[in-house]
Amino acid sequence: MKKVVKYVAFDILRNKIVIAYMVFLFLFSMGLFIIEEVPEKSLLSLLTLNLILIPLISIMFSTIYIYNSSEFIELLAAQPIQRKSLWLSFFIGLASALSLAFFIGCGIPVLLFSANSVGIIMIITGWILSVIFVSVSMFISVYIKDKTKGIGVSLLTWLYFTLLFDGVVLFVLFQLLEYPLEKLIIGLSVMNPIDLVRIISLLNMDVSALMGATSAIFKQSFAGNMGSLFSFGVLILWMILPLYLSVRKFDKKDL
Amino acid sequence: MIQFSAINKQFDKFKVLNNIELTLQEGNIIALIGPNACGKTTLIKALLGMVIPDTGEIFFDGKSIKKDWKYRNNIGYMPQIGKYPENMTVGQVIGMVEDLRDAQLNKLDRELYDSYKLKDILHKRMGTLSGGTRQKVSAYLAFLFHPHVFILDEPTAGLDPLSAIILKEKILKEKEKGKIILITSHILSELDEIVNQIVYMEEGKIVFNKPIDQVKSDTGKTKLTEAIAQIMNIDKRV
Questions:
Q1: Is A76 helix (H, G, I), strand (E, B) or coil?
Q2: Contact call for B84 and A252, based on CB within 8 A
């Protein structure tokens, strides 16, 4: 299994898109920190970028990579390798390569300019987001056989999590203004890892003005660190669950 | 010994394998033939664990291959169309497979490496290779680890005559060592020279499984091509 991980990870790290992603993140983060004198403000801008870019790159790159590797997967499946370890190796390879790209591109500038608890949380949540969206893409690409359809679904998934979801939440909120909605909103935000990361980051940055509806309610409902702990727990579920389901499916899939 | 026991497989509503019962013994070269889309490749893929049968079991040396993967150490597979990562070089692909198989380098079968002059193309990317050259790489990889069973899906398609002869000689050599060699091919004249058992499939079923001499005497023909053509024709009339 280690060997397959090695081949996949090296293959990805040589990929031009991953290198471009890393360089772009690095230049952008460095630029933000150098131009803006207050690191907190730069962190905030960086957060906005990360919440859009990390999920996009992670889900799209992984989905396309898996579809393009169908030949590679077939070649390996005829070798004495367990199906489960084959699929997990692809996951680990993708997740570690994309995490490394994120860490070099965004983690290093953050550590250089703002190595405090907010910065650390930003790096951790960025890493978690990378892994979650690789995991989601594994789920999509194992269930959908057609490449074009799979890529389309990945793009829609990303769009849903970054844009549409907020709209849905606001819509629900305005429709049901008269009712006590805290539980419902918390329940809804659990459905969106990007929202959870935003909540964790903003709770730690203490910039209420920028919070969405969900984070404001989170702040009200959870005293102290409970909100963050709860969110981290859910995020870990988001990393494991799609992957677990995809492994189960791949184990029985016809290649 | 390989044993297929009551194998059924359905893709959507299309029954690809229909209650397959088949036993393959050591020391034989078995030709798996039949019209297009009769389930040959699916049967091979089931044996490799790439397609999972709906019902039924496959036994490899008496052990069920369900949930097993180590048995694939004993299989050399040459696919119909060798699919390899396009941007890896030939040398990298060979190195990778050797690495994955934990090969002890001194115990590898490198005969085809020399006869196919693979040394000259080691630096070429897989994506740039012609179909025939890919086949050579596939053949080399199939024979590399001294497997106990060979599965060769259209092995000579795309090979030039000389390379095809080299491959046939290699196959006969392995047969002498008491291995099981399963070949599918449409080039019957080629099979005629090396095969000693014929498994004929049609629409997911095995129509017959006989020694080649019996196939010829049953149809009264001296050549396999004619014998099989006659069988296919009879089927059409019915």
A1: helix
A2: no
This prediction's pTM: 0.87
Considering only residues B133 and A210, tell me which one the structure prediction assigns the higher pLDDT.
Answer: B133
Tally Cβ neighbours within 10 Å of residue A214. Answer: 24
Q: Which CATH number fits domain B2-237: 3.50.30.80, 2.40.128.20, 3.40.50.300, 3.40.47.10?
A: 3.40.50.300
What is the model's pLDDT at position A213?
Answer: 66
Query: What share of chain A has pLDDT > 70, as a percent?
Result: 93
Helices (H), chain B: 40-48, 90-100, 111-115, 131-143, 161-176, 188-194, 212-219, 224-237
Give me the residue spans of the domains in chain B. Answer: 2-237
Q: A-chain residues within 8 Å CB-CB of B73?
A: 80
CB A205 within 8 A of CB A43: yes
Q: Measured between CA atoms, how close is B11 to chain A, in angstroms?
A: 10
Q: Does A82 touch chain B (CB under 8 A)?
A: yes
Q: Which residues of chain B neighbour A4 with C-beta distances below 8 Å?
A: 100
B32-71 residues touching A, CB cutoff 8 A:
45, 48-52, 69-71
What amino acid is encoded at A204 in this protein? N
Kindly state the greatest CA–CA separation across chain A.
Answer: 61
Cα–Cα distance between B133 and A5 in angstroms, integer?
A: 28
Contacts of B8 (CB under 8 A, 6+ apart): B15, B17, B18, B19, B20, B53, B54, B55, B56
**B129 vs B89: CA distance, rounded Å:** 10
B179 and B150 Cβ atoms separated by less than 8 Å? yes
A46/A27 Cα distance (integer angstroms):
12
Nearest chain A residue to B52, by CA: A254
CB pairs under 8 A between A and B: 56
- B41 vs B79: CA distance, rounded Å: 9
Q: Is the per-residue pLDDT at A236 higher than 90?
A: yes
Count of beta carbons in the 10 Å neighbourhood of residue A247: 19
Q: Do A4 and A80 contact (CB within 8 A), yes or no?
A: no
- Is the four-CA dihedral B94, B144, B53, B55 of positive or negative sign? negative
User: For residues A45 and A36, is the Cβ–Cβ distance under 8 A?
Assistant: yes
